Amino acid sequence: MKSVKEIAIETKILGRLKKNSKALELAEYLFADEELQELQEYANNVSIKRLGYNDHGPVHMRQVVGNAIKMLNILQDSGIQTSLEKEEIGTFEDSMCAVILAGLMHDLGMTIGRQGHEDMSVILAQPIIERALMHIFPDNLHKRVVIKSLATEAIIGHMSSKKIHSLEAGIILIADGCDMTKGRARIPLAINTTPKVGDIHKYSANAITRIGIHHGERKPIKITIEMTADVGFFQIEEVLLTKIDSSPAKQYVELYAGVEGQEPKCYL
What is the pLDDT of residue 181? Predict the structure, then answer.
């Protein structure tokens, strides 16, 4: 059964998509997919209970989709074309469909383990992607091939470990890095109390109180991060900035972060 938080994020996502669009239809289809839901929940079990990591489950994957949709919409408002549009091989809506698929499946590989989970995510995601696209685009092989390929690039590239080239995959990379507020670390901190290597990720994420994604002043996308303690800078400098630096969307992002009550640092 879905949590209240999952349902709330789904409602926000659906509200950001155009009415009667294929992207909206796809999101609704995926939110109702029982196999995808089971995979997301088991990924979270492995991540939190078995490995002691942060949330990598249904809430996180929905949050990444929400972040990505918001950024894509901002880029469109700013007159920036997606890779599919620029290459004249697809539409903005096709790009949106790819981002939705990738966001909801990028961490499915956590059902197996952390190492190389992006590769495992691709394997687990393929049949669901194909099933979903056949439902949405039953008579358009071209769209199915392009969107599946783009979503696959975004999934396999979300850890900055592999070179990506599309704006869409770059958006997923940043959207993933932006989900680092204290809610992701709440459960791991409560149930894993024995100190171990890697705890800095939990404690630094626990210091992040708010992340905002807005229209920027100098660049199209402005990301703002507030934290309660300096330890939160670890998340920005070691996680988010690494992802932004590897993203084809870097040129469109400005980034500010700081401790509450203090002047924020401008990173980009």
Answer: 78
